[in-house]
Amino acid sequence: MNSMVTEDLTDAELAARLRLALARLTRRLRQHTPQSLSSSQVSTLASVEELEPVRLSDLAAVEGVSLPTQSRVVAALETHRLLVRKPDPDDGRAAQLHITAEGRERLEQLRTERSAFLVERLTTLTGPQRVALVGALDALETLAKGERA
C-alpha cells in the first residue's frame, strides 16, 4: 500500500487510485454474492424501490441510460416478477413502475449478503485504517451523488 499523503497526489493520480480500488471492491462484492441479476438490474430495482411510483423515462434519467436500454432492463425485471407496471392515475397513456414484494425480498437478500462480505473484510483493517475509512465516507457519498463538497 502506498503511504503517500493526499497533498502529494495529483487529481489524476487520486482519481486513478480511487477508480481502481472501487472497481476491485465492486468486483469482489459481485464474486462473493452470486446472483441471477445483472448490476444494471440491481441498480434499477433499487431505484424503483426508492422512487416508486416512477415512470420509465424518469427512471432512465436517474439511471443515466437511454430509454430503450432502460426498457429492456425493466422488461427483464418484470419477467422475474420483481417489478410491475401500473396505469398512471394522472395520465392514462402512461404507466408507473412499482417494486413487488418478491423484488423487495431479493434486494434485501442481496444487501444482506453484500453487507456480510464487507463486515468480514472490515475486520482486516487496522484501527487507523478504520478511522480513515469513516473519515472518507462523507466524501465518497458526495462523489456517488454527483454533488459538490
Low-confidence stretches: none
End-to-end distance: 27 Å
Structural class assignment: mainly alpha
> Nearest-angstrom radius of gyration?
19 Å
List the helices and strands and how they pair.
Blueprint: H1 11-32, H2 39-51, H3 56-63, H4 67-79, E1 83-88, E2 91-99, H5 101-122, H6 127-145
Antiparallel strand pairs: 1-2
Helix pairs in contact: 2-4, 3-4
Verbal overview:
It is a single chain. With 149 residues, the protein is mainly alpha-helical. Helix content is 65%, strand content 10%. The protein contains six helices and two strands; from the N terminus they run ααααββαα. It has helices spanning 11-32, 39-51, 56-63, 67-79, 101-122, 127-145; strands at 83-88, 91-99. The protein has a two-stranded antiparallel ribbon. Helix 2 packs across helix 4 and helix 3 packs across helix 4 (67-79). The radius of gyration is 19 Å and the shape is elongated. The relative contact order is 0.10.
